[in-house]
Amino acid sequence: MSKCIVVCGTSRGIGKAILSYLSSDPQLHLVALSRNVTELTEFYKDNKHVTVLPFDLSLPVETQLNEHFAEITEVHGLINNAGYLEQGPSESLSIDAYHRCMQTNFFGPVALIQWLFPLLNAGKAHVVNISTMGAFQGSVKFPGLSAYAASKAAITNFTEVFAEEHKDSGIRMNCLCLGAVNTEMLQDAFPGYVAPTSAEEMGSFIAEFTLRSGLVFNGKILPVSSSTP
What we know:
Blueprint: E1 3-8, H1 13-22, E2 28-34, H2 38-43, E3 50-54, H3 61-65, E4 77-80, H4 95-123, E5 126-132, H5 146-165, E6 172-178, E7 181-182, H6 184-189, E8 197-198, H7 199-212, E9 221-224
Parallel strand pairs: 1-2, 1-4, 2-3, 4-5, 5-6, 6-9, 7-8
Helix pairs in contact: 1-7, 4-5
């Protein structure tokens, strides 16, 4: 029986790399959620194992996904990879900017988890939330990223509490705090900086972690970075 893996945030960067890596396995049914689906839909049009769906984390989940998930009875993996970054001094960054970061990086993923919960429970799923080293306690922080780091810190704490609440259910939830990765979002924030890790390298790591590590880790906040701290 094929396993169903849902990946949120697949239009570019790490999410696109995760989808590419997993799509080579015919035993997986992949559901790719993204605000921008034109390129993905065209690329995977001949792959019957990949379903590309338009999805916006700022909109109600049920109005976007009810119809498409009607025939899915179990979800075995969920990767919350979507991310949104606002940059600016903490004393002058608008509250709206903080809200936008919280919506994409915390409220939206939590709403998706809640909506998928019956399917996650049925599939004894491994949920992997993607955060940042900037949200990892004791790590070096970068000026101007308070909204992004705070919203990502929220999903790390949620991970720990959710795992404790559901430790006897079979659902596993972990959070990966990523170091710098060569993505479009990184280039937008730090023009000219070249990270030591490619999106493809990180994407394959996250994909394998999702598939293989659910029985080993639960409720863990794990730094994934080639630098210290």
